[in-house]
Amino acid sequence: MSIKVTPFNWGEAQVVNLQKVLNSVVETLDTYFEGSITDCLLVEHDAALGPRVLFDRSPNNEYQVKLSTKDRTWDHHAYQFAHEYCHIRTNYNNTKPKTQWFEEVICELASLFALRRMSENWRENPPYPNWKSYSASLFAYAEDRILDDMHQLPANEEFLTWFTTKLHALENDPYIREDNTLIAIKLLSIFETNPKLWVAMKYFNTWNVLDSDDIFVSFKKWLNLLPTELKPFAEELIYTFKSKT
Question: What confidence score (pLDDT) does residue 243 get?
């Protein structure tokens, strides 16, 4: 797998440096996915369409990833790209199932997870020796999103109560970003404690996805496909939503 970055409209960011950042994202996440993909990625700046990974491939059969970031904001580039790369690794498709909100949650989580792991890696082994100081920026960007008031539960409200009231809206609009992020933050510690969940996520959406399936039906289908050794990690995640599996 290789990443081709088109050399246009990135502002002050040099393509060779941006390439280093995107490669670092892929290397970080692939460590936890325990393997890489064979197809290549074409990454373009597109302020109108980005951030997004298109369903249609390029003429050379590359995944087409659009980012809206520019300049030397390596934390922002990494954040957007990690989200889109996660969609590829978790088998995104061109349907509109009721569970699409969960895919958005997992990919928001992937961005936070990647930034935090990259921050650790860059402290000791950055893409360039003089980039060690950027490790703090990577961590700070993730931390700012985690601590943002928009991503906190209302006072004195339990997660499950909040989630139950939000589920219908999420099924109809999977891009309620504040809610996606709040759920992602709730799950982050589970993934950091049990990183094998990233391997389990490679099985998500590998069944016949029906538009009528809600998240609990999808969880059951997912569990049925998982190898035995991955089921306990998935069950802990599912328990967060109190699925009757």
Answer: 45
Whether residue 89 is contained in a domain is answered as: no
**SS3 per-residue string spanning the chain:** CCEEECCCCCCCCCHHHHHHHHHHHHHHHHHHHCCCCCCCEEEEECCCCCCEECCCCCCCCCEEEEECCCCCCHHHHHHHHHHHHHHHHCCCCCCCCCCHHHHHHHHHHHHHHHHHHHHHHHHHCCCCHHHCCHHHHHHHHHHHHHHCHHHCCCCCCCHHHHHHHHHHHHHHCCCCHHHHHHHHHHHHHHHHHCCCHHHHHCCCCCCCCCCCCCHHHHHHHHHHHCCHHHHHHHHHHHHCCCCCC
Domain boundary, last residue among 58, 74, 90: 74
Same domain (yes/no): 131, 194: yes
Q: Are residues 123 and 196 in the same domain?
A: yes
Domain shared by 69 and 140, yes or no? no
Stated pTM of the model: 0.96
